[in-house]
Amino acid sequence: MEAELRASILLEEASAGIAVIQHDGKIVFVNKRLLQLSGYSKDEILGHHYEEFVDKKYHDFALNLFQKKLQGMPPLLTEIELIDKNGERIPVEMSGSLIRYKGYPAIVVIFRDIRERKLLQKQLLEIERLKAICDLALIVGHDLRNPLQAIANAAYIIRKEISNDKISERIMQALKVIQDSIQYSDKILRDLRDFAMTEPPKLEKLDINALVNEALAQIEVPTNIEVITKLGNVPKIYADKYMLKKIFVNLFINGIQAMEKNGGILSVSTRKRGGFIEITFEDTGVGIPEENLKKLFTSIFTTKAKGMGIGLLICKKFAESHGGSIHVKSTVGKGSTFTVKLPIKNKDLGGEKPYG
Amino acid sequence: MVKAYVLVVDDDKGILETFKTILEQNGYKVDTAQNGREAIEKTKKNYYDVALLDIKLPDMEGTKLLLEMRDTLPKMVKIMVTGYASLQNAVDSLNYGAHAYIMKPVKPDELLKVVEKKLEEKREAEKITEDKVVKWIQTRVAKATQEEDTDERQQK
Questions:
Q1: Where are the alpha helices (DSSP H) in A21-114?
Q2: A146 touches chain B (CB under 8 A)
Q3: Which candidate from A150, A152, A182 shows the least CB-CB separation from B12?
Q4: Would you call A149 and B105 a contact, using CB atoms and an 8 Å cutoff?
Q5: DSSP string of A224-260?
Q6: Which residue of A has its CA nearest to B21?
Q7: Residues A277-318: pLDDT tens digits?
Q8: Using the beta-carbon criterion (under 8 Å), do A179 and B83 form an inter-chain contact?
Q9: What angle do CA A219, A221, A225 make, to 5 degrees?
Q10: Quick one: closest CA in B to A186, which residue?
Q11: What ipTM does this complex have?
């Protein structure tokens, strides 16, 4: 009797989810962990058919288990998905053993939550996928530069061969299209390279405020948008000029694009906070829905018809390569705020040089 | 009048031919090579003021080509025109004696400007050397004449 009690306590308190399913598929026992995992109460599970709690794909699992057990095969580990009370699928690892319950065969099933493992696997896959994209991007980028150069050259030759008084408006227009398209292709290739390259930052002493202004000078600001800069007193830091400028230019363009339709104000400010310099880009544009916010810095993602959606990924990569970070806050209809944080003394990059 | 002699080295025929035409349209005399070996042979036999070099050739790296050409035509202006841009490539090229490093696609007008500018710098450098030689000779002559004068006076 005491042994039985001990066994039931063990089952009840086990760190894995445990259920007993009798021969007709009805669940006759669940432990605490399984209730916690599934979100149901005991009453909602006991006496119900197991199929209610398992994704359709796996409905024959108990049958298979029975058959394998009856054939005397060793316990098998299988991955299936439970469906919790909110309808969410929970990946679990499952094993079962045959027992007798009230005179009939039944199975004890043990579930282990493998959500974390699955998440890790997914992240690893994503890293591998990105790596493959990067390798491909570099190769494609290199190989496309030659034909682009040949096209640019051919257009130049044609222009040069037609004397000024004979060249028509249409030919000029067509040549301009070729030239603009080459430049746009070049921009795509540069973005791809920035995204894919693995070179460390090339450090030099930089005035962040001057760099913000330099980036702004590169931007064509539409007349319905006002850019306000509030540049604080920030120390010079050692950083890669190309990378930081790229971050600033991208965030300027992002902010402007968010306000393209209705206009607005883009406020850019710099300040020193703790050991960091913060550069903030605050727009009064359309804002970013919650579900898109998460994807912004983690995957290739865009809502624009044109472009690859790697601009912010490049910003994140470049900020992180300086030991910094980038964050976003956004309210739909009100606007978004992107904040770049860069360490003043960069230990990862060998520390601030004393006299530069 | 021929502005200068140019050697274009690239394994892409489309680029080779169009660069040749563009340079010819602008008064240069142009020769081409499709690989490193051919390029080196040509620099042994002929004289060029400028070379446009691709950094990746079928038979050798552009950096090796630069080194070899430093021996065959040391005073030739070497401009790297490459699709394989990386910081390392650029640094290596400059260390191995390249005078400029340009990324494809470059606007032909801009490339022509770089060629012109580098040729101008080369001429300046040569002129400075010439001037130095002239000056050195002049001072030498002056000194010699002075010495002669003193000798003559002493003899008197």
A1: 32-38, 42-45, 61-70
A2: yes
A3: A150
A4: yes
A5: TEEEEEEE-----EEE-HHHHHHHHHHHHHHHHHHTT
A6: A157
A7: 999 999 999 898 888 887 788 766 666 655 556 788 889 999
A8: no
A9: 145
A10: B105
A11: 0.81
